[in-house]
Automatic annotation (TrEMBL):
It catalyses: (S)-3-amino-2-methylpropanoate + 2-oxoglutarate = 2-methyl-3-oxopropanoate + L-glutamate; 4-aminobutanoate + 2-oxoglutarate = succinate semialdehyde + L-glutamate. Keywords: Aminotransferase, Antibiotic biosynthesis, Pyridoxal phosphate, Transferase. This is (S)-3-amino-2-methylpropionate transaminase. Belongs to the class-III pyridoxal-phosphate-dependent aminotransferase family. Pathway: Amino-acid degradation; 4-aminobutanoate degradation. It comes from Amycolatopsis jiangsuensis. One of its GO terms (biological process) is antibiotic biosynthetic process. CDD domains: OAT_like.
Length: 449
């Protein structure tokens, strides 16, 4: 085995700023990038990463940053979690690909068995594996349409489901996800969801409005699937009011409609349980997962009622890379880590540490209209003081200030006015505290500016 300088370097244990952010080496790489990489792919914080462990990123200038984004809720087990790295190394040394559709292997089966066990509900379940969240959601729709013989798909305001043609149609926000990319797939219908801070409605009332819209404008017997995020991600970390999800789930059951939970961002212990649907005891017919499933290796899945999944005949589902053996090995390592380290419990602890501080900050500064979230999926929505008017500019300045101090935070929201926190669930209390202190300072300073 060869040993590189990086291998010999000590593992970073704390935030360290050696240069301005981004530093000279990152800026040089950014220059190279601008000549070679499509402008359509953007980066929140263009520091070029050379290694990462736990909740810390080390960049090409030797800066060490605290990661409160987990690559968008992906590295739930932390960067380079030992069980993931060991299994990936071992699998890569044995074989990297055969194509499960040609000659199969055990890892794929083991991931599907784990998904059957971990997703909500004790009915008979099966799974099919893909590479990305969008692919999983798209295939859930294919399955629902085949199983029901119907075509219409219902989605919600502020929804995000991906960037492929069908999932663009399912996604709500135009710029940057859809603008100029039409025509979009037909038979997709958008209805109001539940956004307690802005609609002021109870869950059952919001559900009644949505259901009335579906029945009057589409017809319940035309609907193949209702697709929703139990907590909306890109749309603004919007947690529906209690009762909204159960009411929709019950309506789907009564009308023979497939209820699809898009748990791509909320899954795998992120919200303090394996899946966010659990908080309201909702059992979806199909669950789409990705992001946290394999600690960063590309893997996604549709898991659900065996009879629905098996409605599609042989050859109807799949893909060259779907359920790649190295990605499956990573998933098995990630799931093992979540179990043995009780990362759902860690997510709850993160919630109990962060929410009170964000609430205090809201009272103190007057620029945070709403603090919300569950587990380690937490957010502050920024508004002009005394109003509900979104303040995207302030949000951007606060995020930029955190970045300059070596703390990675992400924004989201239809109005671009939400700072979201998605720390690795394994993040130490000390690093979390330090990251929050930087965020608090940024909010105080920028809200006075
Ligand atoms: C990220 C995301 C997707 C799309 O996943 P990709 O892997 O980027 O295709 C779909 N749904 C939700 C809720 C997401 O957060």
């Amino acid at each position: 085995m060869t040993t590189s300088i990086e291998d010999a370097a000590p593992v970073a244990r704390q935030r360290r700023l050696r240069t301005e952010i981004p530093g000279p080496v990152s800026r040089e790489l950014q220059e190279r990038r601008s000549n070679a990489v499509a402008a359509g792919v953007s980066s929140t914080l263009p520091v070029y990463v050379t290694s990462a462990t736990g909740g810390l990123l080390t960049d090409a200038d030797g800066n060490v940053l605290i990661d409160l984004g987990s690559g968008i809720a992906v590295t739930n087990v932390g960067h380079s979690a030992p069980a993931v790295v060991d299994r990936v190394r071992d699998q890569a040394g044995r074989f990297t690909h055969t194509c499960f559709m040609i000659t199969p292997y055990e890892g794929y089966v083991a991931v599907c068995e784990a998904l059957a066990e971990l997703t909500p509900g004790d009915h008979a379940k099966k799974s099919v594996l893909f590479n990305s969240g969008a692919e999983a959601v798209e295939n859930a729709v294919k399955i629902a349409r085949t199983a029901t013989g119907r075509q219409a798909v219902v989605v919600f305001d502020h929804a995000y489901h991906g960037r492929t043609n069908l999932t663009m149609a399912l996604t709500a926000k135009s710029v940057p996800y859809k603008h100029g990319f039409g025509p979009f797939a037909p038979e997709v219908y958008r209805v109001p969801g539940s956004y307690p801070y802005r609609d002021g409605l109870s869950g059952p009332d919001a559900a009644r409005i949505a259901i009335d819209r579906i029945e009057k404008q589409i017809g319940g017997d035309q609907v193949a699937a209702v697709v929703l995020e139990p907590i909306q991600g890109e749309g603004g970390f919007i947690e529906p009011a209690p009762g909204f999800l159960p009411a929709l789930s019950a309506w789907c059951r009564d009308n023979g409609v497939v209820f699809v939970a898009d748990e791509v961002q909320t899954g795998f212990c992120r919200t303090g349980s394996w899946f966010a649907s659990t908080h309201e005891k909702v059992v979806a017919d199909l669950v789409a997962t990705a992001k946290g499933i394999a600690a960063g290796l590309p893997l996604s899945a549709v898991t659900g009622r065996a009879e629905l999944i098996d409605a599609v005949g042989p050859g109807g589902l799949g893909g060259t890379y779907g359920g790649n053996p190295v990605a499956c090995a990573a998933a098995l390592g990630a799931i093992e880590t979540m179990r043995t380290d009780d990362l759902a419990g860690s997510a709850k602890r993160i919630e109990s540490l962060v929410l009170p501080r964000l609430r205090a900050l809201a009272t103190e500064t007057g620029v945070i209209g709403d603090v919300r979230g569950r587990g380690a999926m937490l957010a502050a929505e920024f508004v002009k003081p005394g109003t509900q008017e979104p303040d995207a500019d302030l949000t951007k300045r606060i995020a930029a200030s955190c970045h300059s101090q070596g703390v990675v935070v992400l924004t989201c929201g239809t109005y671009g006015n939400v700072i979201r926190l998605l720390p690795p669930l394994s993040l130490s209390d000390a690093l979390l505290d330090e990251g929050l202190a930087v965020l608090e300072h940024a909010v105080r300073t920028e809200s006075r500016a």
